[in-house]
Amino acid sequence: VTGAARVLVVGAGPAGLYATTALAGAGAEVDVAERLPTPFGLVRYGVAPDHPKIKSVAGVLSRPFASPGVRFLGNVEVGVDLTPVDLARHYDAVVYATGAPLGRTAGIAGEDLPGSAPAGDFVSWYSGHPDAPDLSSLLTASQVAVIGAGNVALDVTRLLVKDPASLAGTDLPDHVLAALRASRVTDVHLLARRGPAQARFTPSELRELGELPGVDVLVAAGDVAGARAEAAEGSRAARTNVDVLCGWAERAPAGRDRRVRLRFRCRPVRLVGHDRVSGLVVRGEREELLPVEGVLHAVGYGASPLPGLPFDRDTGTVPHVAGRVVDPRRGVVPGVYVTGWLKRGATGVIGTNKADAGETVASLLADLPGLRRAPDRDADSVAALLERRGVPVVTWDGWRRIERAEERLGARQGRAVAKLADLSAMLELAGRPTVRG
Amino acid sequence: MTYVVTSPCVGTKDKSCVDVCPVDCIHDGGEQMLIDPVECIDCGACEPVCPVDAIFLDQDVPSGERDAIEAARSFFDGGSTP
């Protein structure tokens, strides 16, 4: 390939946008195709609304779009709006960064009952993801179980018990704020299958739970017995988590209106109920029935296979070597790369994606001289193709129009941003401008 | 809140933290790496990758290392960002 390389990045979450940054820095022309009209992936639809400082990473992720050679193709689904033939025609290389969007469940009887859902679906709902199922009915339950021992479990637990008045200044969509104000949830049971020393909480986020006004956080002394000795061998985070949990075990409940009970070595066995969840049988030292009417499964995320890409079902990732996609039978697939959760599984924090994308882009740039050169190198012809197919492409300017509308809506309510969640409204706002060449 | 690099970094400067910082707020301060407390978004990516456990959330910095918090603040306040 001579002249600027033409690369398509699929997915505008942190993984895709760190790859875009690295590619643009190396002089490549990059189109970023995103299924949604909005960029930032889990920064917009995963990071909790009461963690705005972490969300500010969006500023850094926006930077590559200031380069003339980088375009946002929002509302464009690769595999639907752009076919494999199109990709081969217009791009020298493709980087897949579509993440792991499927919330896993505990795999227990009754988990398909209404009232039981992956925690990720609840996160998508409160974050205003346009495809999220309406999970407002969960808030009619007085008691909810959250299965899991990571930060997603903490996020959903916190959102369930936090005073809605303290969320009024966040970017939560209006309908979500209204639903949280009407919530009847008073008790959340946070259930970890393993012990306190094995919990995967980030210590500062665990501590945050204990600082919520109006909420008693309860840990049984028996659940943390021996945990300090176990954690002594582990990471600093494990030791801090255990210290925090032991501190809570010594605290007397203050008779507050809402309660979080953290349970360790507590295995969910089955959900009971006829037309919706009415209880969860768990097994700790003995079997017991928790009278919950809602169950959220925060046991991880998975990817699903992408058309035309190899996929390892055991790990839920695309097989690769240093980001080069590898077909188990035919070897390296030329010009096809992977980064982020689709590459390494749903682990790590936002920053993990920067180093990860660096590896993938280094492989791509090293391969570039030997890659087949895309025959149609005119950026405008991609835009024309999508126009002909009637795909309303949301450009970066289009996204900025959505963002400004969210800021105006927020300003009317005394907050910085009020998120929009309706897809057609967002497309309407973005307009249908032609893609910049 | 912010994360803070403490003295075990001196003589180590492994810089794994720089690779994972999502906002590129960790800079070479000479003897050791320093986190710009204004740019830091508290994500915590740097803490577990440090091979010498030098990085702490400000409220968790050990008592003997508390000076590191002010040292980082004044380094970046002074406009000497590399």
What does this protein look like?
The complex is a heterodimer of chains A (437) and B (82). Chain A is built from 17 helices and 18 strands. With 437 residues, chain A is α/β, with parallel strands linked by helices. The model of chain B has no long low-confidence stretch (mean pLDDT 93). In chain B, strand 2 and strand 3 form a beta hairpin. In chain B, 24% of the residues lie in helices and 15% in strands. At the A-B interface, helix 12 and helix 14 of A face helix 2 of B.
Record keyword descriptors for this entry:
heterodimer, A: 437 residues, alpha/beta, 7-stranded mixed β-sheet, 6-stranded parallel β-sheet, 33% helix, 19% strand, globular, B: 82 residues, alpha+beta, two-stranded antiparallel sheet, 3 helices, 4 strands, 15% strand
Question: What is the strand and helix layout of this fold?
Answer:
The complex is a heterodimer of chains A (437) and B (82).
Chain A: E1 6-10, H1 14-25, E2 29-34, H2 42-45, H3 52-55, H4 58-62, E3 70-74, H5 84-90, E4 93-96, E5 102-103, E6 116-118, H6 119-126, E7 143-147, H7 151-161, H8 174-181, E8 187-191, H9 203-210, E9 215-219, H10 221-224, H11 227-231, H12 236-250, E10 258-263, E11 267-272, E12 279-283, E13 287-290, E14 294-297, E15 301-302, E16 320-321, E17 324-327, E18 331-338, H13 341-344, H14 352-367, H15 379-388, H16 396-412, H17 423-430
Parallel strand pairs in A: 1-2, 1-4, 2-3, 4-18, 6-14, 7-8, 7-14, 8-10, 9-10
Antiparallel strand pairs in A: 5-15, 11-12, 12-13, 16-17, 17-18
Helix pairs in contact in A: 1-14, 6-7, 9-12, 16-17
Chain B: E1 3-5, H1 16-20, E2 26-28, E3 33-35, H2 46-49, E4 55-57, H3 67-77
Antiparallel strand pairs in B: 1-4, 2-3
Outline:
Chain A is α/β, with parallel strands linked by helices and 437 residues long. In chain A, 33% of the residues lie in helices and 19% in strands.
